[in-house]
Specification:
By secondary structure, the chain is mostly helical. The protein has three helices and two strands.
């Protein structure tokens, strides 16, 4: 494998890992999951991350436990996963679900995905145009 091809493969893996982390975080999952899937599977991994649903269903009532980060009922005073004692939440209007909470990508993530794909296309075109 030539040096320029190896550099492109490594750059592709790094870019896909970074974008994968952003996509994964926007869907309520861990950044490490996105880095692994994006970095190892490349563009196919990014497509898989875009297709996977978010951890919390859109508009799901509840809150996240501050100790173990698991989703629990909004009215809970004790976490069913770790047993942490929680402060009761005052009753009020339910917050509107944002785009990222609904499992969508933020505008920044969408722009970043487009830029990464454009950079990869440019790299491939340059490799094809380079004399062998």
């Amino acid at each position: 494998m030539s040096g320029s091809l190896l550099a492109v493969v490594i750059a592709d893996a790094l870019l896909c890992a970074i974008v994968g982390a952003l996509i994964s975080q926007s869907k309520g999952r861990g950044a490490a999951e996105g880095v692994i899937v994006g970095g190892l599977l490349g563009l196919i991994g990014l497509i898989l991350l875009l297709l996977v649903s978010s951890r919390a269903p859109a508009g799901a009532p509840g809150r996240v436990c501050p100790r173990c980060a698991e989703r629990i009922q909004a009215a809970a005073v004790m976490c069913r996963f770790c047993g942490a004692t929680l402060e009761p939440i005052a009753a009020g209007p339910a917050p509107a679900a944002s785009e990222t909470a609904a499992g969508g990508l933020s505008t920044f993530s969408k722009v970043l995905v487009v830029l990464v794909l454009a950079a990869l296309v440019v790299l491939v075109v340059q490799m094809q145009a380079a004399p062998h």
